[in-house]
Amino acid sequence: MKDRGSNQSVLARALGISQPSVGRLISGETRESGKLIELARLLQTSPEYLIGEVDDPDLLPSLGDKKVAFGAFPNAEPLAEEVDEDDEIVEIEELDLTFGMGGGSYLDMPVKAKPRKFTRGWLRMFTQAPPVRIKIAQGIGDSMAPTIQNADIVIIDTADTRVKMGDQIWAVAYGETGLIKRLRPLPSGGVKIMSDNPLIEAETAYDGELHVIGKVVAVVRRMAG
After folding, report:
1. Mind listing the pLDDT tens digit for each residue in 58-87?
2. Homologous superfamily of domain range 86-220
3. How far is the C-alpha of 91 from the C-alpha of 94, rounded, in Å?
4. Residues of the chain with CATH 2.10.109.10
5. 137 CA to centre of own chain
6. 160 near 207, Cβ under 8 Å?
7. Rounded Cα distance, 21 and 202, in Å
8. What whole-number distance in Å separates Cα of residue 128 and Cα of residue 74?
9. Which residues in the chain come in under a pLDDT of 50?
10. Structure-derived torsion over alpha carbons of residues 44, 46, 47, 50, reported in degrees to the nearest 10
11. Cβ within 8 Å of residue 128, ≥6 positions away
12. What one-character-per-residue DSSP string does 92-138 give?
């Protein structure tokens, strides 16, 4: 954009979409092919360059040899009626805490085969993290009762993994098991793993024993009929 003397606001008007939608194209959160092609034309480059498949911005394999000058579409009409951002449907992966989880620097998080669909606006009520960093999981057992009941759905922000304040609820892998627990950092460097159920004793994890998946930002409970 800098090389072409443009900005997100100008591109948004030319593409017929909102400025935040342009931002999601730029960040890679959205890869809608039609808009990427239009964006590449406006920036006199190729979609392949924008998504990092080629290093030369002057290569235009998708557009042929003809370049379209920037500003050629100042009054471009939207290709389709723009959907309100809050109504946009996004897919969220569901973690399966019943499967073993590897710890250490890399965590292989088992997910259900079919992602769950939510509106972007509904998710934003709980976290501003991009959808790719949000997971959901189903509570198992009664270790966190009465805060989280068996089969409650928790929403997890995986962009937040630093346990800075005590007694908040986190999704973790501990002993190759997925857990939803309260965590409390200790002066000794360990982390106290606590349940809300008073019948379950707390444990303490030290270096390498605990991997934080993300912070639990909401609990969704099915109401009795």
Report:
1. 654 444 444 433 333 444 444 444 446 778
2. Umud Fragment, subunit A (2.10.109.10)
3. 10
4. 86-220
5. 14
6. no
7. 45
8. 32
9. 60-83, 100-107
10. -70
11. none
12. EEEE-TTSB---TT-----B-SS-EEEEHHHHHTT--S-GGGEEEEE
Tokens, residue 135? 């997971």
Q: Nearest 10 degrees: CA dihedral of 103, 107, 113, 116?
A: 110
According to DSSP, the residues that pair with 174 across neighbouring strands are 177, 210
Angle 33-42/19-27 helices, nearest 10 degrees? Answer: 100
Sign of the CA dihedral running 14, 16, 21, 27? negative
Helices (H) and strands (E) in the chain, counts: 5, 9
Is the full-model pTM beyond 0.70?
no
